[in-house]
Structure formats: C-alpha cells, structure tokens
Amino acid sequence: MLLGLNKQKGEGASTIVLYIFVIMMAVTIMLKLGPAYMDNRSVKQTLNTVEEELQGKDIYDIPNKTIIGMVKKNFSVNMLDRDKTLVDALEVVRDKKSVILTCNYEKRIELFGNVDVILKFVNENDLTD
Question: Is residue 54 a contact partner of residue 62, using CB atoms and an 8 Å limit?
Fold first, then answer.
C-alpha cells in the first residue's frame, strides 16, 4: 500500500544540500569581492575630499603634481596606498573648460581554483564645478 506518499511534506536531502551549496557560494563571492568594492568606495570618498579642498581655489594655477600629491596623502591616511594600481591609476586631465581627476583601474581577484574575476572601476571628479 502507498498511503504515505501523498502526505510527505518538506524538502528532500538533495534539495537542502543544493540550498546550502548556493548559500556557501554566495557568501564566498561576497567575502572575496566585498573588500574591492569597499576600497573603491574609499577611493570615491578621497576624490570627493580633494575636490572639496580645492573648491574656491583657481584650479588652473595648481599643478597636476600637487593635486595628485593631495590624493596620495589621503590614500595613505585611508591605507589605500598599499595597492600600487590605485596610485598608478591617478591622472589629472585638463582642457580649456575643465580639470578632471580620474582614478580608473581594474582589479583581478582569484575567486576559486582557476576562476578569476576582473572588476573595473571608473572614478572621475570634475574639479571645475
């Protein structure tokens, strides 16, 4: 007799194992990629801080080295100078109407085994506003 088959409720063991696997993968990805996004958030805050420091000053008279030096100083305060790709990615782009401070970089993170993730971050602040 098959009386109990229609009355079973709940998930099977294989479904529970699959749920645990998916949750573990999500946690692993968050733990691996999270610090890169937190660093980029700090980069954005640093560029905004430098932009605020330069407000009210004649930006066209300030040399690029001085602006980049201000950013590097803030990077060292926020411990971002440990990543040389960030420091190397700093650039000041000037034209007749604007001065733009950029920090565009890519970060490669080993996820697991031979699977890598490449994150591309684009940060630009217009200093002439």
Answer: yes
Instruction: Find where tokens 């217009």 sit.
Output: 126
Smallest Cα–Cα separation from 93: which of 125, 116, 54, 122? Answer: 125
Tens-digit pLDDT profile for residues 65-76: 999 999 999 988
Amino acid at position 122, single letter: V
Tell me which residue of 50, 43, 49, 46 sits closest to 104, measured CA to CA: 43
pLDDT, tens digit, 9 for 90 and up, residues 40-52: 999 999 999 999 9
The label of the residue with tokens 């932009």 reads 51
Q: What is the pLDDT of residue 3?
A: 57
Does residue 69 contact residue 54 with C-beta atoms inside 8 Å? no
Residue 33 CB coordination number (10 Å): 15
Q: Where are the domains of the chain?
A: 13-126
